[in-house]
Design a protein that fits this description.
The strands form 11 sheets. The protein has a 14-stranded parallel β-sheet with strand order 3-4-7-27-31-34-37-40-43-46-50-54-57-60, with helices on one face. Strands 5-8-28-32-35-38-41-44-47-51-55-58-61-63 form a 14-stranded parallel β-sheet, with no helix packed on it. Helices cover about 5% and strands about 35% of the residues. The radius of gyration is 27 Å and the shape is globular. By secondary structure, the chain is mainly beta.
Length: about 725
């Protein structure tokens, strides 16, 4: 008999009874791991081929036994790579797969010496898929790191250990994890504080305030991190002129410093002299000595310290879509992928948006009809998962993706595909918890779709990044694009930016002509951008966003606007609730000779006077049947006009100013009371009960255990 474990599961099948969550308390923190339960896994039929991998296994054994034999002559494999090779041998011997194949990976941490690479020869079929999964009831970690031991007490608060491989030039790392928590590379000034540039030099450096930068030890390893608008850039130092207070970079920034702010923010990291705060660390490349400042309560004789050995990627699905060679019907289930470095070369290739140049812990090209389900991806240097060219009909479902140097899930490429076989199409990102990212690459996005169509991003919880929540498009202006018919619905996106992150951001950010794309039934809130450069909004159709449907969303608590359209045409914005925005309920930025959008049946609730802001004078928009209300009781303005003056220009002829009668707006309960006047303008109540994660209660309630990043708005630069 076939077990449903090896088949594609509709939502009703994967939402219940499929996995449990193991809750482990480490040093006061709560970590959740996917654990398969034996009760949900049917007995393997005789027609199933099963291999086992265990930490006490041996790659010279058959892999057919779950445990070593009493004689010690046979048992499980020691590595997934050996199991992969066994499946290759099986296929060659039988002329292809005759039965489904499962690799059961037993409890423990597997320290990888190299990335696991799958090629087209590792494919399964629809009838005979290949599954790599955690053994029932186990917590299985695939780690790209190594344990660091041998700690000794330094004078003061520091501890140190010598790593010979570093001193010999064979190993260097830029991430460190202690007791399952990311540590901070020693930085000046400390987290939450910044230096300011004095004046620009060019894209390759700037003038600094005397005393901010110094001729520190190992200056060649120090990195300068510069905040621009929607991105940061990272730079090694090529010249430090302390007499004239000039610093020059090894590689240029995307913009000249001073372009976005006359005095831009920056900090320096990997500075031994900055090692002054608990949780910070420093690695001396020359001596091989690793220093660490323990957190209160940490016992350096018992802590688990892990440093990455592998560079960026743990698993690579290396298909060849340009040659029509794909990897198909492979499933990763219940596994945890952890501990990778970030790629920080001397000539750092800085991205101009969304940490585009960075790669991922799980990379895929030419992957089709496959899935990553119930997995944990954490403590990685760059992105979590990237489905690149030729990735079609894949599912990323029920994964916990967190503690990321960059973003969570990426789909697509930066350029439009030349053929359909090279396109990333029809992928599903559903029921994932993606949080706490952008630690190195601050402009990274939790879910990014570029030049890719017919994808579904649904029921995800996203929080605690420095920039935007979901980004869709990647073509600017009105040139033909290749991101259409994407469905973004039932996502809960919140607590982004936190005031000292980046600017020009949104809960969702879109670009280009996008027919068939729908943004609906999402909840966006607590989106606080850095306020001194540009805006931070809830729903942000940027350059050229066109032919998109935006309906039945709730947005509240934003720095600037709930809805902010830079420029675009023929978008439909209807039946949304826009509340408690910092500057205006809705913003239109550009006057154009076509219809920008249809703005109808929306409720706008503000505590300030501005319902609408910026460019609304040429009338090339359709706006009607909306409800406006100012809960502070002050007069409402439409740009600079009163409501009567606004209506006299032909706008909002059937709209009203009235209390929408929410159940409890102060506590963000935006359900309508039965006699709400909003019902008279055609507004239909929005059901938010399905927003976010679904499944068993432990999974659904996991986001409530997260402590969000503290909102921290730095003071404006002193002129």
């Amino acid at each position: 008999m076939k077990t449903t474990l090896f088949q594609h599961h509709p939502r009703s099948q994967i939402s219940t009874g499929f996995r449990k969550i193991a809750k482990i308390s480490i040093n006061g923190g709560i970590f959740m791991f996917p654990v398969f339960t034996a009760i949900t896994i049917q007995m393997m039929s005789a027609s199933e081929t099963v291999y086992y991998v265990a930490t006490n296994g041996n790659d010279n054994w058959s892999g057919k036994l779950a445990e070593p034999s009493k004689e010690g002559t046979d048992g499980p494999f020691a590595s997934i790579i050996r199991a992969r090779n066994a499946i290759r041998e099986l296929k060659k011997g039988e002329g292809g797969l005759k039965n489904p194949v499962t690799v059961m990976v037993r409890e423990g941490t597997y320290y990888l010496d190299e990335a696991i690479i799958f090629t087209p020869e590792d494919s399964g079929t629809e009838e005979c898929p290949v599954t790599y999964q955690a053994y029932p009831g186990s917590k299985t970690i695939l780690s790209g790191g190594r344990l660091i031991k041998g700690w000794e007490k330094e004078e003061g608060e520091l501890w140190f250990t010598e790593i010979p491989e570093v001193k010999e030039g064979d190993w260097y790392f830029n991430q460190l994890f202690v007791n399952g928590k990311r540590c901070t590379r020693a930085r000046i000034p400390n987290a939450g504080c910044y230096f300011r540039t004095v004046r620009p030099l060019d894209a390759g450096g700037f003038y600094y305030k005397e005393g901010d930068l110094k001729a520190w030890e190992n200056l060649e390893d120090v990195m300068i991190v510069v905040y621009h608008s929607w991105e940061t850039s990272m730079h090694y130092i090529s010249l430090l002129d302390t007499e004239n207070c000039i610093v020059k970079f090894q590689s240029p920034a995307p913009w000249t410093t001073g372009y976005w702010e006359r005095k831009q923010r920056y900090y320096v990291e990997n500075v031994f002299e900055g090692l002054d705060t608990p949780g910070e660390w420093y690695l001396n490349r020359k001596t091989g000595i690793l220093y660490y400042y323990p957190l209160p309560g940490e016992n350096m004789e018992t802590v688990e310290v892990i440093a990455p050995l592998l560079e960026v990627t743990l698993v690579n699905f290396n298909g060849r879509p340009e040659a029509g060679e794909f990897i198909e019907h492979i499933y990763l289930k219940g596994l945890s992928f952890q501990h990778t470095n970030a790629y920080l070369p001397e000539n750092m290739p800085n991205s101009s948006q969304a940490a585009f140049n960075q790669q991922a812990a799980i990379m895929a090209s030419g992957l089709r009809n496959s899935a990553i389900e119930n997995c944990d991806i954490a403590h990685v240097g760059e992105h979590g998962i990237w489905l690149r060219a030729g990735c079609q009909d894949n599912r990323i479902v029920h994964c916990h993706i967190h503690d990321l140097g960059a973003g969570g899930v990426r789909i697509g490429e930066g350029a439009s595909p030349e053929t359909e076989s090279l396109a990333a199409l029809r992928n599903v990102v559903d029921n994932n918890f993606i949080h706490d990212g952008g630690y190195l690459f601050h402009g990274a996005v939790p879910v990014w779709i570029g030049r890719s169509s017919y994808n579904r991003v649904t029921h995800n919880e996203i929080c605690d990044f420095d920039y935007t929540g979901i980004s869709v498009g990647w073509s600017w202006g009105y040139a033909p694009g290749s991101a259409n018919n994407n469905i973004i619905e039932y996502n809960h996106v919140h607590h982004l930016g936190n005031g000292d992150g980046l600017s020009d951001s949104g809960g969702i950010y879109t670009l280009g002509i996008s027919p068939g794309t729908k943004v609906r039934y999402n909840l966006f809130h607590d989106l606080y951008s850095y306020p001194y450069v540009s805006h931070g909004s809830g729903i942000y159709p940027d350059e050229g966003t066109s032919e998109m449907l935006i309906e039945n969303n709730i947005v509240y608590n934003t720095t600037t606007s709930s809805f902010f359209q830079h420029y675009g045409r023929e978008n439909i914005v209807r039946n949304n609730i826009f509340a408690f925005s910092g500057e205006a309920g809705a913003t239109r930025c550009r006057e154009e000779d076509h219809i920008s959008f249809h703005f109808e049946n929306n409720i706008l609730l503000c505590e300030h006077k501005n319902m609408l802001s910026r460019a609304w004078s040429n009338g090339n928009y359709r706006i009607d049947n909306n409800l406006y209300w100012n809960s502070s009781g002050s007069e409402i303005k439409f740009v600079s006009l009163s409501f009567e003056e606004w209506q006299a220009k032909g706008n909002d002829r059937h709209s009203i100013i009235a209390d929408p009668m929410f159940v409890d707006a102060k506590n963000y309960d935006f359900r309508l009371k039965p006699n709400s006047p909003a019902l008279k303008i055609g507004f239909k109540p929005i059901d938010m009960s399905k927003v976010g994660l679904y499944g068993e209660s432990e999974w659904v309630n996991l986001p409530r255990k997260i402590v969000h990043r503290k909102r921290n708005v730095p003071p404006p630069p002193v002129e």
